[in-house]
Protein 1
Amino acid sequence: MKTLLKIASYIGLVLTIIPPILFFKSYISLDSSHLYMTIGMLVWFGTAPFWINKKTDESSSES
Amino acid sequence: MKDQKLFKKIVSENNEYERTPVPDNQLKSGKSFLGMYAGEHTAGTEFVIGPLFVAHGVAASDLVLGLLIGNLLAVMSWGFLTGPIATSKRMTLYYQLERITGKSVVNLYNLINALMFCFLAGSMIAVSATAVGIPFNLAMPELTDWYPKTPGWILAVVIMGAIITLIAIRGYNQVAKFANVIAPWMILIFISAAFSALPQLGVHSLDGFIVAAKEVIWTGVPAAGFSKFTIWHVIFFCWFCNMAMHIGMSDLTILRYAKSWKYGFFSFAGMYIGHFVAWIASGILYAVFLQTNVNTNEFAPGPIAYQAAGIAGAVCVVVAGWTTANPTIYRAGLALQGIFPQTKTWKITAIVGGITSLAACFPALVMKLLDFVALYGLVLMPMGAVIFADFYLADKFGFQQEQALNNKKTFTWPALSAWLLTLAVCWLLNYFFGLELFFLGLPGWFVAVILFVLFSKIKFPTLKTKIA
């Protein structure tokens, strides 16, 4: 489950950085870039909290 | 991320090892510091500082070279000044100062530190409010604004301030966890926003960027009412914007957990991501904003980021401002709690939040952020110089180390006098010789060291044992 969440989070980050580069190279419009970035943001915030801080909590309990 | 664990330790209510050195089994790896520095120095302030460089008419080559040199000097300050003392003593700044100057001087330091934190947090609340106000078509502050202009602005800031204060009252941990979540995304948003912005300047290649950087973005012409910044301004601002932390020794509290003194150099992650990439990116965003809003004097990070990165950009400004303001309010509360230990934490946090929200109503805090950050570092710097002199120069110049502790005093005057007189000398240099605020830290540091050594030799000379 954690692996799936991580993969989804990284897809969120990819959607944050790649569309602006595609817009920079004139492959997509600014509106499309903004839309993908918003989707990327939602995916990141919807998945990352479930594994980023889990990692911290686990390492906290180890010490 | 491990940096959250480290940071939580540092600002937690049960501040561990407050008055004892950090034991060896609690030391942290270099990776923790790398993550923490990268996250902490890519924050809400970056949305303001980059655009202010544009407003101050920095030329493109001056900016790039200035940032490279200034950041290097900052990293070296962390590495060569803060790191070795932190890992040798392994104590908090506050306790180290208390051992040198006594509790009463530390109380004064805490009070000033808390006030500075309030103003810094206030500027971040104002930054967040500029993004929150977008859907409500709120009239945004302008570059020359010092006072709030509209009731809507005051209302937005007060509501933001109240929410942030309530969250701070609930404790630090949840915000720290959320800050961990946004850090990687926020760094990418800065880069993404720059890529989104450049085509709006007609730039689609690296060559085009170099031309646009010189002719459109960092033109070398300051905005009306703004002084002209040279490469020296960039170098010194970059070096001294975190002066309180490195030369001022605030980061003793963090680096005391480092396994090696060399971990101070890991601050390069924060400097070259936050204070290089993010400042350049936010400068580009502001240039695009100016191009598409001709003759505007508006200066609001929210709309600037929204134009370049859409909803993601505006959300980034809100959460970046919030996650910077929140721990800052919390730290201010902790500093005040050191002075009023009997008062409940929530009451102190509420008072701090109130002061912060009030300060946030004044756009001057955002428009003059460069000056404020420079002043913040300058005011706290002399105590870092005192710690440096106590650590390195006591034996050489024949005065007692940790004077207050060794003489069982709660007040000693050499450090306090060196602090106040240094600030007086800096003021004189500024008033009579016109030396700008950004440059005062360098002569100020030498003045502080010399005065402290001199006063310490007078008041606490080393006790000599005669050999017959």
Protein 2
Amino acid sequence: MATGIKDKVAIVGMGCTRFGERWGDSAEDLVVEAYLEALADAGIDESRLEAYWLATCFDEINLGKSAIGLSQCLKLPFLPVTRVENFCASGTEAFRGAAYAVAAGACDFAVAVGVEKLKDTGYGGLPDFGISLGTRNRLTFPNLTAPGAFAQLATRYAARYGLAPEEVKRAMAHVSAKSHKNGAKNPKAHLRREVTIEAIMAAPTVAWPLGLFDCCGVSDGAAVAILTRPDLAREIRPDPVLVKALQIAVTSGEELMATGWDGAHIETTSRAAARAYQEAGVENPRAELSLLNLHDCFSITELVTYEDLQISPRGGAPRDILDGFYDLDGTIPCQTDGGLKCFGHPIGASGLRMIYEIYKQFQGKAQERQLTDPRLGLTHNLGGFPSMSVCSVAIFGR
Amino acid sequence: MTGIVSFGAYLPRLRLDRKAIFAAMGWFNPVTFGAARGEKAVANHDEDSVTLAVEAARDCLACGSKGRIGALFAASTTFPYLERMNAALIASALDLQPELAAQDSGGAATAGTTSLLSALSCVTAGEVEQALVTASDCRLGKPGSGQEHVFGDGAASMLVGRDDVIATYLGSHSIRQDFPDQVRQPGRLFGRSWEERWIREEGYQPLLQGAIQGLLAKTEKSLTDLAKVCIACPDPRTIAAIGKKLRLTPEQLVDPLLGSVGDTGCAHALLLLASALAESKPGDLILVAGYGSGADALLFQATEALATFGGPAGVKPALARRVALVPYEKYLTFREILPVELGIRGEIQAPTALSALSRERRAVLGLVGMRCTACGTPQFPPQHRCVNPECRAMDTSEPYPFSSRTGTVFSYTGDMLAFSFDPPAAYGLVDMAGGGRLNLDFTDCTLDELKVGMEVALTFRRKYVDRERGLTGYFWKATPLRVQ
């Protein structure tokens, strides 16, 4: 009987670049910057690192297809290196590869690297998904973008709970304002300016009903995690961070092709969260979790995720949001580092960037954003669209 | 007796006010003032001669089975493909049976009437039981030209057969000669014409009149026998002049639709015939004459079956279904006459895997999904494994056509980031009556009109145009079901 990977994997070193429009830096530059930070943080000899997983979403940019780009960049001595891609959940996929290798005993030290150099695409938002949806879908799917796909969550949420679009918009605005407030405190964040609810509500529409401030930053950046067994980790440092759960759920197609899904939640998140709580032994997430780092690609995504994670009741997220439940000084602070919204969203790096914040919070190194004695932290990384998604939920503790 | 079994019409919903054309371009060519009356139907940014033909044929086939159609004749002078049969594309969109003879024709506006003649001959000869005709056009006039005022976009369709005929075919008369009044070579967006007076006096009038009189002589009918006379001619004055010369009464002359639709080229004669059929009673003699590199005239007589014919929507509701296209520059943009800044999302078009398109043609062009024979769940596109989580049966699918079903809007957005010639790009999920959920663009509507739960119908549209590789991609879109 499988027992999961709870307490079988520890993070012993992490690095994360400043996210943003890094016009002067290449994907290689970003990888090296995060990698050197992680090595210094772990304080171990590089020769102990045995296997690498690389996450990038768009292979026509960054380091290209395959793992060769990473291996050549770091001049890795003919090691096992793998590139993974699972849309916006790619970063957590790299982490999962490395974590499973350690948990399986295949190696003592494994590395997860995530990078995305989005500002080399020439696009304001994410590049078109035209080719990446597969031959068959491309022939029929609307010419959809990420904001357009996620905007429908807001349309549905309003319809499902009988809310006026303005009511949903106001709750979404609070989500973004909170992240801007947190991001302003983070020197590595892409967007470091507080924004008022009024400014958010008045911003131009990107994909109705989502406005400019409902959408996350499109950034360059890289993040790296070095993983090992807890026993080895404690030999290296006193404060490693342990993986309590790591679950991933991918759509079966029923949200898109059957008619049972209500369109006002993310089914993969609900499924991955339920399994992660089971793996970590969390019985009451609202009472037990200390902090969240969610995939807030759009404010509405964060809103419904509160419900999918069983923290807010169904239909109850707007009330919790407006009550400040998820603010930095709230009951369960969310996006303490600014989230995708303000830290930015270099896709391949994002899942690892979320873990980076949890890791720093546990080690008491989150500076102005530091929480008091966090016990359990959750990261949530979502790829694809609400109607066809891949989701990972990871829980970390000490 | 061979004749017409059903008819159909389709006009794009958009109308361009000719005063708006004149307001924009009249400074350049003040003489077009005379033409600047009424409005013309113009294709939406996602419509072309193929999509118009499909919609007219859907109207035509709305009340009957299409299982007996053995031939398809598709006429247009503006088909998107010179090679890759447009008729085959239309047949796939209509999900006609693959045992089908099909043909594109063009060359002149009379391709519509000539195609109808071919269909009649084909059925009379016993080659096929039923033959379908589509005629559609989207011709462009240069900005500031008289043609810009005259040309309209539209389509008509006729189903020809031997049984259940609503109008019996009595005969035809054609005149063919090289009369180069309207000239357009392949690859050219715009045509060119010679002096109007010459066209009127040497072209329209003698050729149309010759065809009509020749037909009457051949069929031994007199002008007073005719209940309806449809004259498809771009010039309203010529129609009036012919009417006067032939002493036709206003009741006999069918509204030439020039003021409300414009001259729809190949489609026009058949559009007028569809209009006349809807207004006819059993026994009526209906003459239709079309012009282009000569003229064709055909004579039909309405049968008793017409009285009880359930009938398609036809021209009248198509005329009523209208919305103004403003401003004029939007029209220029839709037709790609005005090169707008497309942005990177509009510039880059992923290549189409033609082998995949061919393999998936019933799904992509015909919107045929599947229904699971184990649990009955309809789904799109066809799946190996049933998507119903309670079923999950493997390879238990039967074909399930979605195109004629209505649906309700499940979710929607208006996306300013996605490329569209008519931003915001509206799209979302649609739950179909009877089951199944489709991921679709919305068209012929504004974002403000869309509501969760509103009823929509499906329409065949252009999905993208790949200029670099010379390809047009088609799929189905949802459009609000408007009460006529």
Protein 3
Amino acid sequence: MAMSEVEMTKQQTALAEAGKKKKPVASTFKEMYLGPIVAFVLFISLWQLIPVVLGLPHYILPKPTDVWEATVSDWALLAEAIRITIFESVIGFLLSAVIGIGVSVLLASSKILERSIYPYAIILQTIPVVAVAPIVVIWFGAGFNSIVVISFLIGFFPVISNTLMGLNSADKNMDELFTLYNASRWQRMWKLRIPAAMPYIMAGLKISCTLSIVGAIVGEYVAGIGGGNGGLGYAITVAAIQVKTSFLFSCGIAAALLGISFYLLISLFSKMMLGSWHESAMKSEK
Amino acid sequence: MTIEQKQAVYFQNVSKMYNTGTIALNHFDFPVEEGEFISFLGPSGCGKSTALRMVAGLGSPTTGDVTVFGNTPEDLIKNTNDIAFVFQDANLLPWRSVLDNVLLPLELRGGNKKEKKEAAVKVLEMVGLKDHLKSYPRQLSGGMRMRVSIARALAAKPKLLLMDEPFAALDEITRQTLQMELLDIWEKEKMTVLFVTHNVYEAVFLSSKIAVMSARPGRLSSVIDVNLPYPREPGMRTDPAFSKYVGIASASLENHEQRKETV
């Protein structure tokens, strides 16, 4: 008896200590994550309940369990579609990043060029790419090429307008400092304007990376697949025709997750690029 | 002409009018001898910064001439490292380390890489930042940033150092330390310094000569020769002779009539 009592108290104190140590962790968990998790669970439960209560058929509003089933049973189809969409949007995004930054640097290196072309770049940005997509298809043919071009077009303008803004954002005093040291135009570009534009460029890339996915999906709606394998856009079109609503939900969720992961990846890249100095990347450190 | 060539900087009847019609500087005539430490002292709007910027070629006079070592500022900037400028803000590139910031003027001019680095490390040593070569500007205090800025200006071995209220944003203690360091450097390097300030005590403590300016329109109101011996020690700030010059400078700041003070 005495032995077990001693052990009991030992256990109790150990538990109490563990509890003390865990308390801050538990409280941050409570503050940070509990709310969103509860909201998520509530949302899913409501979603599960509503079709049952209202008697909605699964092709109008599928239950989360229906979506899950559709995802599992058509996984091979979905995975292939995701893979293709990733491929198309990554190429579209890389093109818009490289060409967008390149064209901006070229434009910004000449005031005359910039003044004459920038207004059109702004106007072009306001054209809904969906509206010109059929023209792209006529020029580049059905399938992959057109899809990449549409994805590129959608992502291109945020990069170019942000980069141009950034290239002109260098502090006036720093610009004068370069004048004082008789810096050449290219020295000013490489050592002052491009580094100063980095935060703006990164902001542009963050916008453009999610848009490039939109571009790839919309591109498939318009350009079809031209005999190749289809991505998410194609999978969505087919599922819509067959009224496979549950699978449509799977595709939508997959596209959303794709967008989020792409965005997080670019954010990480941006933090790496700006980490050493820029304030927007510093805030999390403070 | 011969007189002109001896001068480090010569303002000849310089006027500057901005497009808005404001007269920033009106018939400004002022010679700066080589090796002097000159302060332009005056209220805001008296054209002291405008005058300084003209010396660096960052703006040209509407009428009149500014010559630096007998040349135009533009020519000197194009061909030599003779002129260096320290801004009110430390004006460092945030993406470059302390060492790389100081290397910038040397980089822009080209030349031997190893020598450049040695020169940069040497000036950083001079301002007491040898242990912070790899730090970034955001990791430094305001005073240290200004030290980097001064080191950057000195890196290319200028003959003329232009400073536009460099210590205005610093706290009093840091300001006094940096004033001492600046005087040390000036005496060692035998440069000419043009220093813009609105702080009477700073002007008296640092300068061999003070050009007092008044505003609307910006003009020279008087020139004060500060006959206090160098090297100037911190204790001098409480010296009666120091106070006397502070009094003279303050009085001529209030007095808008043009006159020459000699004491």
Protein 4
Amino acid sequence: MKKSLRIALAGNPNAGKSTIFNALTGDDQHVGNWPGKTVEVKTGYFQIDDLKVEITDLPGTYSLSSFSPEEEIARNFLIQEKPDLVINVVDASNLERNLYLTLQVLETHVPTLILLNMNDVAERRGLTLNTKLLSEKLGGVEIIQMTANKNFSGDELKRKIIATAGTQNDLHLEYPKPITEIIDQLVPVIRQEAGLKIYDPTHLAVQLLEGDRHLIDDISLEAKNTFSKILGKSQENFEEDISIAIADHRYKIIQGITEKVISRKKGDVSFSDRVDNFVTNKFFGIPIFFVTMYIVFQLVQNVSAPYLDWIDGVFTGPLTHWATTFLIWVNAPDWVSSLIVDGVLAGVGGILVFLPGLFMMYLLLAILEQSGYMARAAFVMDRFMNKARLHGKSFIPMILGFGCNVPAIYATRTIKKPEARILTSLLIPFMSCSARLPVYLIFGMAFFPDKSNIVIFSLYLLGILVAASIGIILSRTLFRGETLSIMVMELPPYRLPTLSSILKYAKNQSSKFVKNAGTIIVVFSTILWLLLNLPWGVQNARDSYFGQVSNSIAPILAPAGFGTWEASGSLVTGLVAKEIVVSTFAQIYHIPQEEIAESDLGLGLEFKEIAVGFGEATILAGKETLEVFTPGITLFPDEELREDIGLSKALRSSFTPLSAYAFLVFVLLYVPCAATMGAQKQEFGWKWMTVSIAITLIVPWILSVLVFQGGTLLGLG
Amino acid sequence: MLINILKSIRNNSGTISLTDLSKEFNIEISLVEQMLNTLERSGKLIEIKIEGTENCTSCEECPILNNCSLTDIFQEKRYQLT
């Protein structure tokens, strides 16, 4: 009898291999890499009586093809190293999936022991397995039923291993006749070739038919040619590839086995399935998605508004006062005071007020994703995208566009066809990036205080509709011939999001926003301040260089209802980055510092005021959040009306609600920021960047004019 | 069965979910996943990933995608017919 044994642990990922490996080997383990691969290999040992057993924990795989390095390693180990035994760890709660690898392992004819693990999970799912019948169906292979992390007896398993090692594995899969005929042609050639003597001829023939040609890399040219001839001819008799026919046959066998071996409790529909009956329903799916997004925007608005007032108050009050006092104390020249207070503080403050709103937005997105709903929303929208004849792969770049258009443009690299890539990149700017949200929020609150969530929601929707419409037009004109692609999507089960991970996500994304927007706004606020003050000593900002240039553009925008130099000026600066649109307004309409200086309360009182303001904002945000979930019921009837921030008042002097909405439509759709244009130029060249600019100038102008003129005709002006 | 799944994907006029396929063929969703994986191996389907298959290397190596605000969500698997 042998004094040592070599055994391998094989199984699907997460089938519980590692737990079994650790239980069998204890501390006697060695971890390294497979030769020439970055895949980790774990080897362990145990001794039973005078027999030393070496166990190799093979990488978790779903099959034994050479599709990935892990699979290649597992396959090579079994058919080249020929261990004395392979322990196939099978997840009993997922038998259908696990049996594919089991069949492939048994086809290698290496002695096999099946460890049916996770029986407790299977039981909870209402599954009962007939292991005796399963063993019969699998050619009499030894099966042990267990749960690795409960009542696991390592010694019992070790004895079973010794008893099973070296025993014959008798499973012979009977493939359909057309496949068998080709296997029969290949087997004699394999037998004749000296380099292939180590393999089981039938198994190798099947591997070759499945496209696993690496195994015959080192054989004679003559044999290679014979193989090529047979394999080339083999495709003729099959509807799809012969590899599909082989896999299909294995699945048929698996289905036949599981139908007999598994008993299920009837009528046990999972929670996810019950919810999905509505959420992904052909008719309810899109309305549910819209209601969800409506609630998201309602929460963003309700939670951010009180904090917006508070941050605005801190910036225009104590912070400006402290800065002014400090500048006076250090005898700073007037222009330095103006630059810091009217330029930097106004610009940065103008954008930071939206941080709570963005934080809330990221928080809600994370909740939707982690709960599993976002996958459903994507699924529902995928259907819509397909109807718009968009390339299936366009989906991810376009969704990324809601965050930032720049990575979205780069993400089009995933699309193989150049025409489809360009088409997608032309549509991405219509996806409303997060930098535009502050513009929607400030205008929404200034002009539609009770309905700003509907306004914001309508803008996001409009962006999608415009992208779809332009997509349809371009795919039938400039990009004719692009075929519609079908997608298959995974819908993960619904789960409860964890507080720590959603907070972490929201915090990371908000920090990114502050870092990116903060840097660019500080620089650009300085430049804008300069342009608003040149020629030096100019009294009215309209007469500054910036005012003059903006004023010359304004008439073009007059038909859309916002032909003022302030509006055109902010749109021009928005070409640098969309965050700057709001900070430009904040600088143009900045409240003179003398008015603020009057609100001197003393340092202690000002700190107290900041803290009290934060507390009040938090209470108000909490109340408003509760009201979102009780539609039609007023929980807090005596709530004071929110105070307007200075910028809202100033905007109302230049816009009407109708022209404000037309302006928002323009902001949503007009030329993306410089970084996005740069990405388009880098990826597709000047020509397509220019086409994109042309589209994003013409489309928003037409639509905003339609909104304003149409609204005026309807008496909404 | 695998061939029928492929036919079903081809004949569907839009996006289809793994749940739809599971219900249509009365098989466990995990088996549908496995089958899609097999179809991917045989080149009939391609998995759409954030990392590009053609021009990109990986998100980690892409300076822009590291700033992407949505890369780390939308992790669900998506397949497309080749």
